[in-house]
Design brief:
Order of helices and strands: HEEEEEEHEEHHEHHHEEH
Number of helices: 8
Mean pLDDT: 89
Structural class: alpha+beta
Largest sheet: 5 strands, mixed
CATH topology of the largest domain: Glutaredoxin
CATH class of the largest domain: Alpha Beta
Radius of gyration: 24 Å
Length: about 250
């Protein structure tokens, strides 16, 4: 009798687990159907459960929305755990950006390495004609001295037909891209600098990659833990964010 009761309980648990899995698949299917109706050409969404019953997280590109399990309701905003005070939305976006960082090719960047052992890397989407990008560029020696490697990708705010885009392509195709960047950021001409004989500038690819990070302006700073900071951040504020400095 005891064996029979144990078997009955086990079967009940297995049935409950199967029903739960079926409910999960059904909810994902309903949400996908709603998304396909609302946004037919949207990138493939990553749909995951949240700690809140009946609320699902939907990651589309670099944006997160939340939807009900029946696919009939959604809201856009931050999901915050009151018990831990943690912003679960930002936590998920940081994870997405860390994954996107891991897929970037360092060979396509202009890199200013840290002096000595690198403690952290920051990745910066920059526009050579942006005043605040130039201000951040002047901070690089102090960041390098503090053990921070700075990696540049190009983001021309005015688009691919802009002067900044053409200038960026010339910088990345210079024989010494860092020297060309230094000159451009100092508002000096780069026309006399030697160019590589053969070069496929990565600037267009950088503009596309910027979408993965939700870049809308420059500079945009991505820390190595995935946190994103739009705009200029001085060294004395940036180092504590990285756990460096006093």
């Amino acid at each position: 009798m005891r064996f029979g009761m144990a078997a009955f309980v086990l079967l009940g648990l297995l049935a409950s687990s199967a029903a739960s899995a079926n409910d999960k698949e059904a909810a994902q299917a309903r949400i996908e159907q709603t998304l396909n109706t609302l946004i037919p050409n949207a990138p493939e969404a990553q749909i995951t459960q949240t700690p809140v019953d009946g609320v699902w997280q939907v990651l589309i590109g670099s944006e997160i929305i939340y939807m009900s399990a029946d696919g009939q309701y959604f809201f856009n905003g931050s999901l915050i755990s009151l018990s831990t005070r943690e912003n679960l939305t930002e936590k998920a976006l940081n994870a997405q950006r860390r994954e996107a960082l891991s897929e970037l090719s360092a060979e396509s960047m202009i890199v200013y390495p840290a002096k000595g052992e690198s403690q952290h890397e920051i990745t910066v989407f920059t526009d050579v004609d942006c005043p605040y990008c130039r201000k951040l560029h002047r901070e690089i020696p102090a960041l390098n001295d503090a053990g921070v490697t700075v990696r540049y990708l190009a983001y021309a705010r005015q688009g691919m037909q802009s002067e900044a885009f053409a200038k960026s392509e010339k910088i990345w195709c210079a024989k010494n891209p860092a020297k060309a960047m230094d000159r451009a950021m100092s508002d000096q001409s780069i026309d006399t600098l030697a160019q590589k004989e053969s070069c496929e500038p990565p600037v267009r690819a950088h503009m596309q990659q910027a979408q993965q990070f939700g870049v809308q302006g420059t500079p945009t700073i991505i820390l190595d833990d995935g946190r994103r900071f739009p705009g200029f951040v001085p060294t004395d504020e940036l180092l504590p964010l990285l756990g460096l400095g006093d």
